[in-house]
Q: What sequence folds into this?
């Protein structure tokens, strides 16, 4: 049986909790570890994503147009509201509303950031970045700004803290196209989401 004085035990417990809180505060204020774009692109390709590069948003729109022609995507893409202006200025397609996402062949989203270690895209849901575009279209194109790649998942939360981002309703982590092996242990693409994923890394621009 312990002979420790109850008061001493309580004070020791309180001191321990204060030490834990101080450690957590230091962790909360720690720097974000940014990752290497090359590592991310290698991992993303390994996950089954196609990767393209563009010097600016206008070139990204042109690349999407080229993809549409090459892959015979007959319907105009459905763009996230945050980039509708860029798509309309390019005059390449008519503007489709989000109500077309379920029937749309192609959805175009903007990533909040990416995780280098796993080749994962991070998409925060909002009115300007609806989660429906991440799952309903058959083909998914995601724009990622260069310099928004962090090393690991913990750095995503740290980046959100530093940028004072309110926790969104949903945070989608996307590592390649949708796939499943539920049917006869054979990999099937597009069972629960887009069949293809294309990442366009945009240089020297902010989305």
A:
């Amino acid at each position: 049986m312990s002979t420790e004085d109850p008061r001493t035990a309580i004070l020791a417990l309180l001191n321990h909790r204060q030490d834990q809180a101080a450690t957590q505060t230091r962790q909360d204020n720690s720097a974000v570890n940014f990752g290497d774009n090359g590592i991310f692109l290698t991992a993303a390709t390994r996950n089954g994503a196609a990767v393209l590069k563009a010097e600016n948003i206008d070139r990204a729109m042109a690349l999407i147009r080229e993809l549409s022609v090459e892959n015979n995507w007959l319907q105009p893409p459905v763009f996230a509201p945050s980039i509708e202006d860029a798509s309309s200025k390019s005059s390449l397609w008519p503007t489709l509303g989000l109500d077309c996402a379920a029937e749309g062949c192609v959805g175009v989203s903007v990533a909040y950031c990416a995780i280098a270690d796993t080749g994962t895209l991070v998409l925060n849901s909002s009115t300007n970045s609806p989660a429906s575009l991440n799952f309903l279209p058959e083909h998914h194109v995601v724009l990622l700004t260069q310099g928004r790649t962090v090393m690991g998942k913990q750095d995503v939360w740290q980046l959100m803290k530093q940028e004072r981002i309110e926790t969104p309703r949903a945070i989608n982590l996307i590592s390649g196209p949708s796939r499943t092996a539920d049917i006869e242990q054979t990999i099937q693409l597009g069972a629960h989401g887009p069949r293809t994923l294309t990442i366009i890394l945009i240089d020297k621009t902010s989305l």
Observations:
- Residues 123 and 172 are 5 Å apart (CA to CA).
